[in-house]
Amino acid sequence: NNHSSDPRGALIVLEGLDRCGKTSQSSRLLSYLEELGHAVESWRFPDRTTNVGQMISSYLANKSHLDDHTIHLLFSANRWEKRSLMESKLKSGTTLIIDRYSYSGVAFSSAKGLDMEWCKAPEIGLLAPDLVLYLDISPEKAAERGGYGEERYEQLEFQEKVAESYKTLRDASWKNIDATLPIEDVEKQLRETVLNCVETCGKGKPLSGLWL
Ligand code: NYM
User: Fold this and answer.
1) Using a 6 Å cutoff on CB, does residue 134 contact ligand 1?
2) Which residues form a coiled coil (predicted)?
3) Please, are residues 144 and 159 in contact by the beta-carbon 8 Å criterion?
4) Residue 212: pLDDT band by 50, 70, 90 thresholds?
5) Is 16 in the pocket of ligand 1 (CB under 6 A)?
6) Residue whose CA lies nearest to ligand 1 atom number 15
7) ipTM tops 0.85
8) Does 100 contact ligand 1 (Cβ within 6 A)?
9) Which atom of ligand 1 approaches the CA of 46 most closely?
10) Which residue ranges form the domains of the chain, and what is each CATH number?
């Protein structure tokens, strides 16, 4: 029932443009929570280790070409194949720090011109994050950070469109963090917010589904 809920781990998602610093922050968060004695794992999407993930990886490396709708559905399938494991981890008390999730799925695909509602549809029923940490950086500043790699999407013009799409996706679980601050300052802000969230979920907060 909705009145009382068992203690559980928190579902925490990091989002942002390419080169916003998500990956280093998620590993810092992982060690921080581990040191405090919390059960915690860090995950990332796309999860390139599965069969679907390998198709995605080859697409991102420009080694294969897929229709925009098709790759969108593969990214979504890649989350669905982890959904039940995700739920059991959370219910057993493990907090998950996830580098990219459905918000990336919708932001990147809709930046190509796909309809946003269409993009959201296959995400319906995936677990809703308790907290979305958006590492906010302008596309120009992100591009200055050692430049982009060779992967698809890593171009200034496209990242500008992604940033616009992200703006329309903000919801109640969303928190903007200024990602242009020094790495330690970003980390400090993330720590406070994350700890709060872990505590709330530890007291029992019902799991819900996307999109709210
Ligand atoms: N990406 C990631 C999507 O287009 N849709 C998704 O659902 C997800 C999870 O993949 N440029 C894009 C964003 C990135 C790229 O992610 C690979 P990463 O974090 O660089 O491995």
Assistant:
1) no
2) none
3) no
4) low
5) no
6) 60
7) yes
8) yes
9) 9
10) 11-202 (3.40.50.300)
Q: Which two tokens stand for residue 182?
A: 């020094």
CA distance 46 to 88: 20
134 three-state secondary structure: strand
Q: What's the whole-model pTM score?
A: 0.96
pLDDT in tens, 36-48: 999 999 999 999 9
| Separation in Å, CA 6 to CA 9, 10, 83, 207, 210 | 10, 12, 19, 10, 20
Instruction: Name the residue type at position 135.
Output: L
| For residue 1, pLDDT beyond 70 | no
Q: Which residues are CB-contacts of 48 (< 8 A; sequence separation ≥ 6)?
A: 54, 56, 57
Residue 103 has pLDDT above 70, yes or no: yes
Amino acid at 61: A
